Amino acid sequence: MALQTYTGSCHCGAVRFQADLDLNEGSNRCNCSYCAKARAWFAFAKGVERFRLVDGSTLSEYRWTPPGEAEAHLTYSFCRTCGVRAFARGNLEALGGTFHAIHLPTLDLSPEQFAAIPVRYVNGRDGRYDEAPAHPQAI
């Protein structure tokens, strides 16, 4: 694993953070109802120590609970000034407990760095996070 510290922010810069990520591990694109609408593209900072909020004075949250579930899966954090969703927080044993899902477009990366990130497509629409959807190019 090659963890590297990345910086990121919302559009107006009011929300800033640091995340320790291994982008060679890949990223996720999901087709669930929320991710498809938001065009979500995430990488995971596993464990609370791998994410540091530098400035969150304008943060607001949205908690999403999938249909048929008893509790929220993710708490999405976005800037209430510019509206950009920067990251989400959740807890899943398969990811080592508490994690932050970093919305990759908010990272301070070059176009070449973005293009090099492997993408894994997951079928969240059908609750099958272990398989790709039939039409991954549509997400």
Give structural notes:
The model has no long low-confidence stretch (mean pLDDT 89). This protein has a single domain, classed as Metal Binding Protein, Guanine Nucleotide Exchange Factor, Chain A (Beta Complex), CATH 2.170.150. The strands form 3 sheets. Strands 4-9-8-7-6 form a 5-stranded antiparallel sheet, with no helix packed on it. Strands 1-2-5 form a 3-stranded antiparallel sheet, with no helix packed on it. Strands 3-10 form a two-stranded parallel sheet. The chain has 139 residues and is mainly β. It has helices at residues 33-38, 111-115, and strands at residues 4-9, 16-21, 27-30, 42-46, 51-55, 59-64, 74-79, 85-92, 97-103, 119-122.
Which short descriptors sum up this protein?
Metal Binding Protein, Guanine Nucleotide Exchange Factor, Chain A, 2 helices, five-stranded antiparallel β-sheet, mainly beta, 139 residues, globular
Q: How far apart lie the N and C ends?
A: 28 Å
**Total helical segments:** 2
Q: Helical amount among residues, as a percent range?
A: under 10%
CATH topology, what is it called? Metal Binding Protein, Guanine Nucleotide Exchange Factor, Chain A
Number of strands: 10
Secondary-structure element order, as H and E? EEEHEEEEEEHE
Strand order of the main beta sheet, please? 4-9-8-7-6
Which value, in Å, is the CA radius of gyration? 14 Å
